[in-house]
Design goal:
7-stranded mixed beta sheet; alpha+beta; globular; 706 residues; 21 helices; single chain
Length: 706
């Protein structure tokens, strides 16, 4: 099955490397080249060398002919326009249905060396036909029929792949859309856009949202929710429904717990006789009690304080209380026997479900997805099913300890209302899974739980990132922690200033790689603030760690780091008198997310396209807090190329979407006036030069994906 998800094919002119996930296929495209005497064909050949051997077929009369010269501009003039290689033509055929589709938007050539097909279905076999495109010959003045501006030439290079079926494999991985602010969403549901006047950072401004939950048409509302969920919500509801009767049990942890459909699914399980137990986050603070706007005092004049739950806790409790049952017995089970409060950790940030039959754990659902509307219909999230009894048992052992609500950390014993001698979770977790040492063996899976006694696990993540030979793919919803930032802040040979840090820290020295082919992709929820960076840098300097501190503004300069952050396309609006804007395809978010708009996933991949990839995924944000303070869980999967392909293709889908918006918004900020210029065709060979310039990131990307 893993071999079907990756496939390579080549002919005399081009090569294609296809990587199939669940709902995505990435095609790495390249021009064929002859190996040099040393056998190294990766970087020495120039663009001119590449193009000089291409054949150009299908001239004006439809006859094949050979081109002996390069299609690059000649010194004394241009090659004939119809000989000019302007990109790729890609057609797709679904072998299940026989349906064929052209992937060239409006017949335009694809002018990059990878293409993402994000419209495939799980468990289908697809055939891709790739050809080169040239400018069509000039139209004859005697022709009465219009001809396309670009035509595909030569014999097609055909490649076949099969997408993963998450319902049948050991790992079932589901991503939601995570790109609500897109042209597609606006085109489909823009008629339901609403404008709001908000005060952001002290400045009043207009913002628009397309909230699927407020769409008045029930059919359109259902369609919008399904488009945004993209199978994630449906997979979770199906997982819960697997517990069919009283022989089944569900053991759950929940941080945010407000999504009606999910809550009703658990309630329905209770009605089926399923034994459901849900540990949920409960935190708050003691504040002065007030009555009629006056502070309440006791008879001695002391201020009376009352416990006030935080918003996450109160929202969860309201959602739990809102569920009704036809049977009083089921209502009593729901309110008295189902929920377990978790008080003593910093944050109970887990969001996993263990499925048991007759008391034996069989499967687990984990990932980044909270049980909220925002998690399914807004920010990007992943749900990951592991159909493995040993892994499920690890989760159950952890759940059983959490259910006792022990202290989170040793030093917090005195603040706990529980037995002072209770073993804290950081010690329990170290016993369940000690910090790993070195890389994992091939074809293994490990589970790590937090809180932990030290940040050693975070250092282990940094070590794995530092070991990367080809690539890193990393999502950071809440910024990049220092151990990881230090790895990202190295590119090529150590600089003189960095060598000092290397001598001081053997751990950093071990992480250094000098391979100039390495490419690291980083997805951030938002563009970091220079003001926040300066404050953090000043704080580190005050603590004597200023020389070691680094962040986005340091590592963004390195050519091995390719960074994108969440954004909607700006500059597509026509100003109107009242300061609001209108545009047919103005990109708008759903408005469901209040803190994290774009990226909520927490995963890292090391050397994803090799035969021994590392995938680390779960609920923790690769931070000190998530490692040492919060209740968290992470999966580390080694050597499973099928899982890597799903995560890789989904990552690239999101990266391509947001990187293009970042660059377009950046160009608008520099004075570009045409909002459609980003899809205009470049009609000479200049579009290719950056892909063959060893100093450019796109050169590394072409080599990586091919």
């Amino acid at each position: 099955q893993q071999q079907k998800m990756r496939s390579r094919s080549e002919n005399n002119d081009i090569s294609v490397h296809a990587i199939a996930g669940t709902r995505d296929v990435i095609l790495g495209l390249n021009l064929q080249q002859k190996d040099d005497e040393s056998g190294d064909s990766s970087s020495s050949t120039t663009l001119s060398d590449m193009l000089s051997g291409l054949t150009v077929a299908d001239d004006a009369n439809g006859a094949d002919r050979a081109a002996s010269e390069s299609s690059l501009p000649e010194k004394n003039g241009q090659s004939p326009s119809h000989d000019l290689f302007v990109g790729f033509s890609i057609d797709r055929r679904d072998l299940s249905s026989g349906k064929s589709t052209s992937l060239n938007f409006e017949g335009r050539p694809i002018q990059k060396f990878h293409y993402g097909d994000y419209t495939v279905e799980p468990g289908h076999q697809y055939e891709y036909s790739v050809r080169r495109m040239i400018k069509a010959p000039s139209r004859s003045r005697y022709s009465f029929f219009s001809r396309p501006k670009y035509v595909a030439v030569g014999s097609p290079l055909v490649i076949t792949v099969t997408t993963e079926d998450p319902s049948t494999s050991k790992h079932g991985v589901y991503f939601n859309r995570g790109a609500a602010g897109s042209q597609a969403y606006a085109e489909k549901f823009g008629e339901f856009r609403k404008w709001h006047r908000v005060n952001k950072y002290g400045t009043p401004q207009w913002t628009s949202t397309i909230n699927p939950l407020t769409i008045p048409d029930p059919a359109k509302k259902k369609e919008a929710c399904a488009w945004l969920s993209r199978g994630l919500e449906e997979a979770l509801l199906e997982f819960i429904s697997e517990a069919r009767d009283s022989s089944w049990q569900l053991r759950v942890t929940a941080y945010e717990f407000t999504h009606k459909e999910v809550i009703h699914a658990f309630a329905a399980a209770v009605e089926r006789g399923v034994d459901v137990k849900i540990i949920h986050h409960v935190k708050g603070s003691h504040r002065p009690k007030t009555r009629y706007n006056d502070v309440v005092k006791d008879k001695d004049g002391k201020v009376v304080k009352e416990w006030v739950p935080d918003k996450t806790t109160s929202d969860t409790q309201h959602a739990i209380d809102a569920v009704g049952f036809q049977s009083l017995d089921h209502a009593r089970i729901w309110h008295h026997d189902t929920f377990i409060e978790r008080h003593t950790s910093s944050i109970m940030h887990n969001k996993f479900i263990i499925l048991l039959r007759d008391g034996k754990p069989v499967e687990v659902w984990t990932g980044s997805t909270n049980f909220t509307e925002s998690a399914f219909y807004g920010q990007s999230n992943v749900g990951h099913i592991v159909r493995d009894e040993d892994v499920a048992q690890h989760y159950l052992s952890y759940w059983d300890k959490l259910a006792l609500d022990p202290p989170g950390r040793s030093k917090r014993h005195s603040g706990s209302s529980h037995d002072e001698d209770a073993v804290p979770m950081d010690e329990i977790n170290q016993q369940l899974q000690p910090d790993p040492a070195g890389a994992q063996p091939h074809d293994t899976m490990a589970v790590f739980f937090s809180p932990r006694k030290t940040s050693g696990l975070l250092d282990w993540y940094a070590d794995r990132m530092g070991d990367a030979a080809d690539s890193v793919h990393f999502t950071a919803a809440f910024g990049v922690s220092q151990p990881l930032a230090r790895v990202l802040n190295h590119d090529g040979k150590p600089s003189p200033s960095h060598e000092v840090g290397v001598r001081r820290s053997p751990r950093i020295a071990r992480r250094i790689k000098t391979d100039d082919k390495l490419l690291r992709y980083i997805l951030l929820d938002s563009q970091p603030s220079e003001h926040s960076s300066e404050k953090s840098r000043a704080s580190a300097k005050k603590k004597g760690r200023g020389n070691d501190y680094c962040d986005y503004f340091d590592f963004k300069k390195l050519k091995s780091n390719r960074i994108a952050y969440g954004a909607v396309l700006s500059g597509r609006m026509e100003e109107v008198e009242d300061g609001a804007s209108s545009s047919e395809h103005l990109e708008s978010l759903t408005g469901l997310s209040t803190f994290v708009d774009f990226f909520h996933t927490k995963f890292m991949m090391i050397d994803a396209l090799t035969d021994n990839p590392t995938i680390i995924t779960g609920s923790a944000n690769f931070s000190i807090a998530s490692t040492e303070q919060n209740d968290e869980n992470m999966l580390a999967i080694q050597g499973d190329t099928a899982v890597a392909d799903v995560y890789f293709t989904e990552f690239m889908r999101l990266f391509d979407h947001f990187y293009s918006r970042d660059k377009r918004n950046e160009s608008l900020g520099k004075g570009s006036k045409s909002p459609r210029a980003w899809i205009d065709v470049v009609e000479d060979d200049s579009w290719m030069k950056k892909f063959f310039d060893p100093s450019h990131q796109l050169f590394r990307e072409r080599v990586l994906l091919s």
